[in-house]
C-alpha cells in the first residue's frame, strides 16, 4: 500500500494569503500536497508534516479535528530560518470508519516515514492519536522512550474494546500493549491537583519519570535532558496556560507559557534520538483571535529550527569528541561514569546492563544534567541512575 492511499490533498486557498507568499516564507519552501502527491524517489525530505482530521477521542474537545488547516494558515507565513529546509506536507489523514481505523492509518504512515529516515510531525486531533503514533514503532524492532508534555496523566478508566480509546485514558493502551516495546515513559509538566496519588504510586512502581510543572518554574532548561531521552514525543496543547493558548476546551490558568513551549519544541528538534512528534488538542473553535494557531505554528517552527541545529553528538561517535568522568560512591560499592560532549557541553551517564541482558553493549547511556554528575562527585547515587538500572533488569 502506498502512502498516497492515506491522504487527502489540501486546498491551497485554506493557507495561501491573497497576495501570495514571499520567497523566504515556508509556504514556498515546503513541498505541499495540493494536487500531485510528493515523489519520494525524486526528492529527499527530512521532515514530513501531516494532519489528522479526527477528534472523536478528544474528551470535551472534539473540534480539534479541524486543527491542521488552521495551523497551516499561520505556519506557512513564517520565514525560513538559518537553514535549508527539506520539508514535505503530505496533507491530511481523514477520519476512518472507526477511530481504530484512524490509529492504523497513523501507524502505517509513521512506520513508513521512519523507515525512510523522515521525521513525522503530526498535527491532531485528540491526544489519543498518540496511540496510533506509538503503534508506528511496533514493526521497527526497537525499544521506545516516550515523553509526554501534559498537565496530567491520561490513565483513566478505559471502557473501549479493541484498540479504540479516548484522550483521557490512551496511556493505558500504550502501557498494556503487547508486544511491549515501551522502555521508558516520562511526563513533563503535570500539575499535582490534576493527578491522584494512586496514579503517582503507579508511576513510581514502574520506575517511570514524572516531573511537576513547578520543577521548571525557574529554569526551563531542566526539561532538555528529559526531552533528549525521547524517541517519540506527544505534546498536549492543554499543557500551556490559557493566557497563551486559549484554544482548548480543557485549558487551565496554569501551565507552560508560550516561550517555554517553543523552547521545549526546539529541544525536541535537537534530540538526535527523536524520530516522531505529535502536537494535539488544538481546537480552532476556541481560537477567536488566532493566537493559539500562531503559537502552534511557532512551536513547529522551533522544532524545525532545532532539527537543523542537531549536534549529532550522541556518545557513539569518535571518543575524541567526548570527555569521560569517573566518580566513586561513598559506600565504596563502585564507580560511576559520565560522558560530556565537547561539541554541545551536554551530559550522559552510563548505566551498566545486567549480565547477559545485552550482547552488543555494556552500558545504557542516559541523558542527564551537570547536577547529576555533581551528586555523584559528592558520593551519592543520582535517582535517575537507580531508576534506569531497575528498568534494565
From TrEMBL:
The keyword Hydrolase applies. One of its GO terms (molecular function) is metal ion binding. PROSITE patterns: ARGINASE_2. It comes from the Bacteria. Pfam families: Arginase. Keywords: Hydrolase, Metal-binding. InterPro entries: Ureohydrolase, Ureohydrolase_dom_sf. The keyword Plastid does not apply. GO terms for biological process: putrescine biosynthetic process from arginine, via agmatine. Belongs to the arginase family. This is Arginase. It comes from Pedobacter psychrodurus. The lineage of its organism: Bacteria, Pseudomonadati, Bacteroidota, Sphingobacteriia, Sphingobacteriales.
Amino acid at each position: 500500500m502506498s502512502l498516497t492511499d492515506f491522504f487527502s490533498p489540501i486546498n491551497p486557498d485554506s493557507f495561501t494569503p491573497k497576495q501570495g507568499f514571499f520567497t523566504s516564507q515556508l509556504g514556498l519552501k515546503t513541498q505541499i500536497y495540493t494536487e500531485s502527491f510528493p515523489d519520494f524517489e525524486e526528492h529527499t525530505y527530512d521532515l514530513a508534516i501531516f494532519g489528522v482530521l479526527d477528534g472523536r477521542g478528544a474528551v470535551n474537545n472534539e473540534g480539534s479535528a479541524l486543527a491542521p488547516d488552521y495551523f497551516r494558515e499561520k505556519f506557512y507565513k513564517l520565514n525560513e530560518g538559518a537553514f535549508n529546509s527539506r520539508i514535505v506536507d503530505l496533507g491530511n489523514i481523514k477520519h476512518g470508519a472507526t477511530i481504530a481505523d484512524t490509529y492504523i492509518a497513523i501507524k502505517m504512515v509513521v512506520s513508513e516515514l521512519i523507515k525512510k529516515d523522515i521525521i513525522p510531525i503530526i498535527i491532531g486531533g485528540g491526544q489519543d492519536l498518540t496511540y496510533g503514533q506509538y503503534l508506528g514503532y511496533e514493526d521497527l524492532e526497537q525499544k521506545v522512550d516516550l515523553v509526554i508534555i501534559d498537565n496530567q496523566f491520561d490513565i483513566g478508566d478505559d471502557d473501549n474494546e479493541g484498540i479504540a480509546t479516548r484522550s483521557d485514558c490512551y496511556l493505558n493502551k500504550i502501557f498494556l500493549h503487547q508486544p511491549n516495546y515501551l522502555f521508558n515513559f516520562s511526563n513533563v509538566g503535570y500539575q499535582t491537583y490534576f493527578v491522584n496519588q494512586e496514579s503517582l504510586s503507579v508511576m513510581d512502581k514502574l520506575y517511570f519519570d514524572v516531573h511537576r510543572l513547578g520543577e521548571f518554574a525557574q529554569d526551563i532548561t531542566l526539561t532538555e535532558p528529559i526531552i533528549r531521552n525521547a524517541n517519540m514525543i506527544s505534546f498536549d496543547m492543554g499543557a500551556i496556560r490559557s493566557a497563551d493558548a486559549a484554544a482548548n476546551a480543557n485549558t487551565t490558568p496554569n501551565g507552560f507559557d508560550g516561550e517555554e513551549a517553543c523552547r521545549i519544541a526546539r529541544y525536541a528538534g535537537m534530540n538526535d534520538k527523536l524520530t516522531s512528534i505529535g502536537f494535539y488538542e488544538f481546537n480552532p473553535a476556541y481560537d477567536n483571535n488566532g493566537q493559539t494557531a500562531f503559537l502552534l505554528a511557532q512551536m513547529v517552527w522551533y522544532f524545525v529550527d532545532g532539527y537543523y541545529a542537531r549536534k549529532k553528538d550522541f556518545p557513539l561517535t569518535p571518543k575524541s569528541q567526548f570527555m569521560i568522568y569517573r566518580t566513586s560512591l561513598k559506600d565504596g560499592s563502585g564507580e560511576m561514569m559520565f560522558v560530556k560532549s565537547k561539541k554541545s557541553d551536554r551530559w550522559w551517564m552510563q548505566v551498566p546492563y545486567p549480565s547477559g541482558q545485552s550482547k552488543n553493549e555494556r552500558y545504557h547511556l542516559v541523558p542527564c544534567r551537570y547536577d547529576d554528575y555533581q551528586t555523584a562527585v559528592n558520593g551519592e547515587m543520582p535517582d535517575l541512575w537507580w531508576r534506569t538500572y531497575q528498568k534494565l533488569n
